[in-house]
Amino acid sequence: MNWVTISLSAATLFGMAVVISYILGWASKAFYVKVDPRIEAIIEALPGANCGGCGFVGCADYAEGVVLSGAAVNRCPVGGAACAASVAAIMGIEVDESYPQRPIVHCGAHYEDRKGRTPYFGEMTCQAANMVAGVQACTYGCLGFGDCTRACKYDAIHVIDGLATVDYDKCIGCGACGSVCPRNIITITPFKKSRILAVGCSNKDAGREVMAVCEVGCIGCKACAKKSELFKIEDNLPTIDYEHWDAECTLDVMEACEKCPRNRLIFVGEPSPADIAATKDKPLPEVVEADFKTTVDDTEWRG
After folding, report:
1. Which residue positions form the known binding site?
2. Which residues are annotated binding-site positions for [4Fe-4S] cluster?
3. At the N or C end, where does the chain have fewer CB atoms within 10 A?
4. Where does the chain bind [4Fe-4S] cluster 1 (predicted)?
5. 42 and 119 share a domain?
6. Do both 106 and 46 map to the same domain?
């Protein structure tokens, strides 16, 4: 190899570099896609959890949805109201009042409450067990194999004595637990108060069938609806009119809760200041058990 060969090689490489640089420069201008700067600003404003709780694939997808498709600015469950306000400011709009989204487990049956249970040797997931008949007699209730626990990135839901239980101190409301529940007993609900009233059962069968499969399931007796207009019975289950419910329960609502023979009207979320004040001097029992005492138990025999 002499200097002539080396010079030709260097010249060839230089020429190729010039041509390729020119092509890349032309392509960068010809195929440039202008990105709305608001998308980048919204991505910066979002918490970056990429949990999918907003209904989009991730934070970047949600940011594009807000700018390009007009998605609501308050759909980020992790960021909450402060994040919604920031996104609204970027978009130059007013944000409606938003509430944190939290899950409610519509089942109150622990292992010992479920009738008709049989040994299950299949894949230990709710998705698999839900396709097998006879795991437990109730076809509505929690299966307790923990799909929701595994889906939660925030250690906010655990299976305790066979029942999915939410830790509301850790929950950010992404909705991952509800999306994997094969029986759809976990609903994601706007918590307009620190705690809300909920129905802890999903069994829509008649009372006799419910009593045959569960010790605590709602029997559709309508006792709650008779006490308060807040409750309506649909498919043998009470529904709650949240538009007219206040955390400071009225007397009729409290009577409805006390009248429920299966204690299926439950409060979930954080206790109210009044509840904390009322129980601050009470010792914590070792075991908390449901009280199924009825008015008959208080009846004085006068025969």
Report:
1. 51, 54, 59, 76, 138, 142, 148, 152, 171, 174, 177, 181
2. 51, 54, 59, 76, 138, 142, 148, 152, 171, 174, 177, 181
3. C
4. 51, 54, 59, 76
5. no
6. no
